[in-house]
């Protein structure tokens, strides 16, 4: 049984930031409507754009815990710093290029891993099928992005929860040893955490809560820690490490038989419909 966050202890929402203060401001503005109480924990990876001054002036709600690193130590290491900084029993690691459209987004995540549930990790974006090489089957991706959700249920089982939002009870994160920093700077930690949680016998789910993902460009581009070629190389290395570590659990598929068959037939049916439309247009 997954331990539920106690109602008398605020949930901790953890943001790791590196510059792009405009994205952080928009994210925080969207969180003002959140119904579930939480504390905000920010790990600043050596920002140089006024981010530090913004948080130093913070007052009011939600209560803030802030830690600044003198240099950019990487996302994965900073996530573990955020977990240590936080006081809540429920830890929500959120990318700062997201905006929440549902006031109960945090409550839905907390409920998903609540008392009596077998869920150990919840999020807003994930995939139901991970191939043997660690890549995802696109048709199995589920989310509630504002431009078009791909799920109809309150929550859906997945094999992998994307790092854009990860809600995990502190006890579960401690049980699996936190985020695996051996993956390096940025990539692979979310796949690894998902499989580590599933290896304990717990489930991973995506909840139906609408959100916006800006895709902030903090990974590559001006001010990014690496150029695009270096970043791609690090991504490949992280994927290779994931496959070496979790190859015994791959492929991972949480779809039912009927869903697997439907996913397999869908492109064939779409192709047949396209050919039929073309043929009718030629007649």
Key phrases:
single chain, alpha/beta, Spore Coat Polysaccharide Biosynthesis Protein SpsA, Chain A, 3-stranded antiparallel beta sheet, 35% helix
Structure in words:
This protein has 283 residues and is of the alpha/beta class. The protein has a single domain, classed as Alpha-Beta Complex (Spore Coat Polysaccharide Biosynthesis Protein SpsA, Chain A). Helices cover 35% and strands 22% of the residues. It contains eight helices and 15 strands. It has an eight-stranded mixed β-sheet with strand order 3-2-1-4-12-6-13-10, with helices on both faces. It has a three-stranded antiparallel β-sheet with strand order 9-7-11. It is globular. The N and C termini lie far apart (62 Å). The model is unreliable at 4-9 (pLDDT under 50).
How many helical elements? 8
Average per-residue pLDDT, rounded, comes to 88
What's the N-to-C terminus distance? Answer: 62 Å
Which shape, going by the Cα principal axes? globular
Give the second-level CATH assignment, the architecture: Alpha-Beta Complex
Number of E strands: 15
Uncertain ranges:
4-9
Largest sheet: 8 strands, mixed
- In total, the number of domains comes to 1
Strand content of the residues, in percent?
15-25%
- CATH H level, superfamily name: Spore Coat Polysaccharide Biosynthesis Protein SpsA, Chain A
Under CATH at level 1, the class stands as Alpha Beta
What CATH calls the topology is Spore Coat Polysaccharide Biosynthesis Protein SpsA, Chain A
H/E series: EHEHEHEEHEEEEEEEHHEEHEH
Radius of gyration based on Cα positions: 20 Å
Strand arrangement across the biggest beta sheet:
3-2-1-4-12-6-13-10
Helical fraction equals: 25-40%
């Amino acid at each position: 049984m997954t331990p539920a966050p106690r109602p008398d202890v605020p949930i901790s929402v953890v943001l790791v930031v590196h510059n792009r203060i405009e994205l952080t401001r928009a994210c925080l503005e969207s969180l003002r409507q959140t119904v579930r109480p939480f504390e905000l924990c920010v790990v600043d990876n050596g920002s140089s754009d006024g981010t530090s001054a913004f948080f130093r002036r913070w007052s009011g709600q939600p209560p803030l815990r802030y830690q600044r690193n003198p240099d950019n130590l990487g996302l994965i290491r900073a996530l573990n710093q955020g977990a240590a900084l936080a006081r809540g029993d429920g830890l929500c690691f959120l990318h700062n290029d997201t905006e929440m459209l549902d006031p109960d987004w945090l409550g839905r995540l907390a409920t998903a891993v609540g008392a009596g549930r077998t869920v150990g990790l919840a999020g807003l974006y994930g995939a139901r099928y991970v191939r043997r090489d660690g890549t995802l089957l696109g048709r199995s991706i589920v989310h509630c992005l504002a431009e078009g959700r791909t799920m109809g249920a309150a929550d859906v089982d997945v094999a992998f929860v994307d790092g854009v939002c990860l809600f995990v009870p502190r006890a579960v994160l401690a049980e699996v040893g936190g985020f695996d920093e051996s993956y390096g700077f940025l990539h692979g930690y979310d796949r690894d955490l998902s499989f580590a949680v599933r290896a304990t016998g717990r489930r991973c789910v995506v909840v139906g809560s609408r959100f916006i993902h800006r895709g902030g460009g903090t990974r590559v581009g001006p001010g990014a820690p690496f150029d695009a070629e270096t970043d791609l190389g690090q991504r490949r290395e992280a994927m290779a490490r994931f496959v070496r570590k979790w190859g015994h659990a791959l492929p991972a598929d949480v779809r039912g038989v009927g869903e697997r068959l439907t996913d397999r037939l869908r492109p064939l049916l779409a192709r047949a419909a396209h050919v039929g439309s073309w043929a009718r247009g030629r007649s």
